What we know:
Layout: E1 2-5, H1 8-14, E2 19-22, H2 30-40, E3 60-64, E4 67-68, H3 80-83, E5 89-93
Parallel strand pairs: 1-5
Antiparallel strand pairs: 1-2, 3-4, 3-5
Amino acid sequence: xxxxxxPAHLRTLxxxxxxxxxxxxxxxxxxSVLDALEGGYPVLRGTIRDHVTGQRRPFLRFFACxxxxxxxxxxxxxxxxxxxxxxxxxxxxxxxxx
Length: 98
């Protein structure tokens, strides 16, 4: 089981609490987590990744185990603590402006 923490605007959109739990089939990767998240909460499709390109939306970042995974290849395995559910996978809304 994977634990995912979403930013407030996505929690509101999906009508979920701070953390959601997902069951994955296969290895825990960024792609598999986002696929499961969008599959379980269809309203989130297109809010985290572009529908056509599959690229991360601007102003969203991914973290796990105090590591920035935003620019890691989508099929790289996530840290073991995330794969076992000991640590959450974080989707973070980046700040912009001045």
